[in-house]
Amino acid sequence: MAAGVAVEARPQPRGARVSAALWKRAWLRASLVLTPPLAWFLVIYIASLVVLLVTAFWQINPLTTQIVHTWTLDNFRQILTSSTYRGIILRTVGMAAAVTATDVIVAIPFGYFMARVATPRMRSALFVLVLLPLWASYIARVYAWILILNHDGVLNWTLLKVGLPRANIGYTNIAMWIVFCYVWLPFMIIPVYAAFERVPHSFVEASLDLGAKSWRTTRRVLLPLALPGIVAGSIFTFSLTLGDYITPILVGGAGSTFIGNVIYDNVGVAQNLPFAAAMAFVPIVIMAVYLLIARAMGAFEAL
Amino acid sequence: MEGRGTRIVLVLWVIGVLLFLFLPIVTIILYAFNPSNVQSWPISGFTTKWFTVAFHDPQVRSAFVLSLKAASLATVTAIILGSLAAFGVHRFRFFGREAVSFLLVLPLALPGVITGIALNSFFSFNTINFGLMTIVIGHATFCIVVVYNNAIARLRRTSGSLVEASQDLGAVGWQTFRFITLPMLSTALVSGALLAFALSFDEVIVTYFTAGAQNTLPLWIFGAIRLGQQLPEVNAVVAVVLVLTVIPVLLAVRLARDTGAVRPGAAAGGAVQAELPAE
Amino acid sequence: MRERNRFHRLTVTGAVAASIAFVAAACGGSSGSSSTGGSSPSAAGGLGQPPTATMAPPTSVGAGEGQLNIVAWEGYAQPQWVRPFEQQTGCQVNAKYAGSSNEMVSLMSNGGGGQYDLVSASGDADLRLIYGGDVRPVNVNLIPSWNDFLDFMKSPAWNTINGVHYGVSYEFGPNTLIYSTKTFSSPPTSWAVIYDPTYSGQVTVPNNPIQIADAALYLSKKTPSLGITDPYELTQPQFDATVNLLKQQRPLIKKYWDLASQEISLFKNGDVTVGAGWSYQTNTLKADGAPIDETVPQEGATGWADTWMMATKAPHPNCAYKWMQWVTTPTVQAQQALYFGEAPANSQACAEMDKMQKGGCAEWHADNPEAYFQSISFWKTPLATCDNGKNECVPYQDWVNAWTQVTS
Predict the structure, then answer these.
(1) pTM listed for this prediction
(2) Which helix (H) or strand (E) holds A19?
């Protein structure tokens, strides 16, 4: 222990006794530091989540929409056996996967450029440019895409001017895919950039010294080392798509009901909280699995 | 390392992505000058009247103020609790440490609609009135995670020898904290705070469920869009907010870069940790 | 080692205790979210007394509280009549818009949550709000214009139970067939056009389970053998046939609109050429110069009659009464009717409408309201008990499930 063996009678700084007392009792220090945030989380966040999930096992009185505390698995049965809800879940997961894959592909060259090719000034500029769209309201950006993609919108107007036929993308799944990829792209670019940036240049140099050309180095050295960061970024694009309901409402056409819409409709609209809670289990389970896989791949250190 | 051809491809790719990123932004700004109430292409004229309308609209002003208040309070809470959590997890080995770091990812990993309805039922059940406090609680929950991620990334990067040296030289706990730890952490906290503020300011899903009858700016925007009466006003408001925030973002990036002892790249990478949901 | 164990014990105990406490609290105690005490409705047969029936309304209106929070349909809180109200009474109006009765019921749950004062609920929300204990009785004597109301709007069955008024009637109107004049040279005569594959990919209808009634109304005329008399009271075979029709319609739909502005945008930008909507959309599109018009086809139309209802836990009751007094005056009734495209409850409004817009009164049928009223099939909550006393009708919960299946 670093004993301040003061030979001369130096005045102790204020609070030295408290400090010493704390130093001896690590558990007290730990408690003091950890209790406020943990208390917040447990008392508010986890507790409310637990209560919500417990509600999934109850039902409502259809007329008064009051919750009846009879334990039942009916809500889950309805979700799992109904082809409608299975279809909704598959559609949502499929879209989340497609959006994540697309964003990864778009982000990798961008992140690579930012991390390894750009000059520091260019890097800062790109950083700012990537973050800037996040400051324009999410809803406004989605709405702008409606204006671009609809029947008489910017896209079709441009195509017609060039002599091409209209692309009827407005209010389709393709439109949703484009919009999702767009809004989450900055959230993928930054972690990918950070991941590439963390790979020490010495590794790349060593690989080059050992005779690998640039493509091989990228494939065999850079990408595997950057993978945790890429997976970390994908957690967000996947999860955000999984639970979103605003983009399907604004941009989706007929048949664009997502898991988030079912939850929202049952809470905000049909007032069937138990059913919404049962539906909420689905993204929670999916994300739990995703997070476990991500942690195994080391993504948590790359967060 | 890359060949010339690869470089050109990369540059073109970057330009393409930037164009993609800014196309809707340009659209938003362009439509702010549209005289027609109903948005369609091409724009029927050019007018700046919507900016004056937005400026004089009391609903916009109160929504803006509410958003600022909520974001500020949430960010302050997040800084305090987030850095405490980061210290706790980094410095102490305790049972459930893994679980705690897992826990602290949840608010971001779980869809916002779930957090929203969970908090909504929680507040209704305990008959807590919806208002600024409930909004702040909802926002602070994910803001804490943002700051925590930034702080712990920084803590992991810095060596413990500085702290030990400080104690060897006779500093007590809080002195070490104030003169050594805090400055080391400061830029990480600042960039975490900035990101937390941004997320809180633009958050709509959790806010929808935790706000009462009042509107934050995103809620006002959503209401205005659904009403469809004065859409260009929405565009004007968004354009103004965008312009207003360029400066703080530039400052933050500059701050994250100039940390002296730390590599510029690492600081930037560590600065914008876990990119978080705009909802 | 010892410190670690001590901290270990502390964390575990704390976590376990917290979890037990909360689950126990959630399980025991009163029921969850939307409850305000009072009796729940009795089983099949009568619905019993509404929970708030015994809440005595005030006998006078005091000074305004400075603020008013309302839940309203889009277009029901226009600056035209809101600004004068704010200036005269000092009550600042905060409007939260809802696009469907479901949303309104949800926002008003728990008696308005201590947040909202008034809601402009349509007939299909009223019963649910009344029996959910979310709205309270209103003293119509405090609203002078009520005496000028059309007879059938004074104490209609959807907002007056056993002589107790749970709100004050506002305006009523039909769900219309909106069409593009470029596609249809003359107004379509039948709702069949929105079920016609010729217009595949160009149709839009509201994303609302109550839309099933529209399909039922159409079927009641197209296939009389089904025996549908009331589109909101459907036996299982009738319900199944209707849902079948909607499933056939599904491939024709470009989008099920959730927000009025969406339908406006769909028509304006050429994404759809025909669909179901409200006169509000048509008026907005016409004002913008779009080639759109509307009609009520030969099969008739479903519609809505709106009531301003007061939340049980309204935080600003005086401002709420002042609002109800204001919006029932002939001038405001006329402004609202012309703006949205509906018929006023106040019989004096017709003259005002003609003053503001030549022929306005006749355009919105305020000159012959009784006949107009009879021609509309107003929204009401589908219950298991049919009007004939039998218990064989399909309840609203099943409508919601069926609608999700059709649209997803």
Answers:
(1) 0.85
(2) helix A16-24
